[in-house]
Amino acid sequence: MQFRSIIRIVGLLLALFSLSMLAPAGVALIYRDGAGVPFVVTFIILLICGFVCWFPNRRQKRDLKARDGFLIVVLFWTVIGSAGSLPFLLVDSASVSVADAFFESFSALTTTGATVLVGLDDLPKAILFYRQFLQWFGGMGIIVLAVAILPMLGIGGMQLYRAEIPGPVKDSKMTPRIAETAKALWYIYLSLTVACAIAFWLAGMTFFDAVGHSFSTIAIGGFSTHDASMAYFDSYAINMITVVFLLISACNYSLHFAAFASGGVHPKYYLKDPEFRAFIFVQVVLFLICFLVLLNHHSYDTYYEAFDQALFQSVSISTTAGFTTTGFAQWPLFLPMLLLFSSFIGGCAGSTGGGMKVIRILLLTLQGFRELKRLVHPRAVFTIKLGSKALPSKVIDAVWGFFSAYALVFVVCMLALIATGMDELSAFSAVASTLNNLGPGLGEVSLHYGDISDSAKWILVISMLFGRLEVFTLLILFTPSFWKN
């Protein structure tokens, strides 16, 4: 293990992250809300810490191995999540505890969208912008941005990329060089953010709200600048724009790359992809169920309102964004539970969505059907195909391993929450929301997470990290073989 090289890289990344504090400081200067000093102080502290980590190890430029990459990713998200809590602690108007500050920072960076803050409408613009900006950064992953820069500093990025990018097949690259891949991802990410911000602004949002909500929409984060979330705007147009960009962001970014690489949008790249077709199928089914149940219970006065609410909430929850336009926890209990379970599916692999990813659920389903066929025809040989390609057994084994680990982490975190005194429904929904990087829950956490105990918040911070790093990246550090030479 190249520990000095790892410390050097983390120091560089921490110094790069410190630059992000200048953006909210600039917002504070523009709006003159008096919250700029904490961000300047945080910038100086993080820059110094990064320099202290980098300078003694500046000559350590050895090649990284795969397990070095895993350790760097875990260290980086842990360090950056912790560093991101400083502004919340330093801003007087936020008035949060240490546990609250860490919870809010990790929730933003992991794009979970669970919040402990109330009275958002009265907070300084700088704090509101910072929350949205953290989500935007975390959405694609700061590591992916960094691997476009690190090669210029003499550091190879493939090990970081393979540890960071989600999905069952991590060796595939859209372009021959990893730096070009990272740049391509960020060009697409930035373009979608700009397009979303312009659409929100044209639909009636203020410039500040349009930019902030475009950050959290493309990142599939769910933070808002208002306590009422999207309900604050009470606009069908804004709801529809949000739905469209959430669906786009929940698709595999390699599909976006393939579609745009030839000079224009070609639907065939999407329609040929089995995961994309499964994703759209799930979205349509969820919407129809929500719409029909709401109509049956006469939850809204008009068909159009029921249509709008069913479409928005089904897409928002199932893609793990967590935006709300209504108290969906007040719907017939069947629907909140259905949508909460749908967040386990989440977005496509290689997207900014959370959950276990559509491709894994699709492969588990195909495996289940294969086992049923084997019961009928014990001597027959059945292969699992994704499209026209037969998948090797090691891929299926990896998916089952991931599913088992995901379920284990869920159960352990849920039991830990119940041990803190939380009721069963709240504990179940809180872990589901944080592990799937969703945000809103049921019971005690239906509105916000500010009233739960500090010990419960720390457990949920760990759950967020497990979800963001797709379980194995973090879990592998607890295996003895990882640390053996």
UniProtKB/TrEMBL annotation:
Compartments reported by the entry: Cell inner membrane
Residues holding K(+): 111-112, 220-221, 320-321, 437-438
Ion transport listed as a keyword: yes
Transmembrane regions listed in the UniProt entry: 38-57, 69-90, 133-153, 184-208, 236-255, 276-295, 333-353, 398-419, 458-478
UniProt keyword list: Cell inner membrane, Cell membrane, Ion transport, Membrane, Metal-binding, Potassium, Potassium transport, Transmembrane, Transmembrane helix, Transport
GO MF assignments: metal ion binding; potassium:chloride symporter activity
A family per Pfam: TrkH
Superkingdom of origin: Bacteria
Membrane topology: Multi-pass membrane protein
Hydrolase is among the record's keywords: no
Main localization, broad class: membrane
GO cellular component, one term: plasma membrane
Family annotation (NCBIfam families): 2a38
UniProt cross-references to PANTHER family, sorted A to Z: TRK SYSTEM POTASSIUM UPTAKE PROTEIN TRKG-RELATED
Family from the record: Belongs to the TrkH potassium transport family.
Function: Low-affinity potassium transport system. Interacts with Trk system potassium uptake protein TrkA.
Protein name: Trk system potassium uptake protein
Organism: Vibrio ezurae NBRC 102218
Gene from which this protein is expressed: trkH
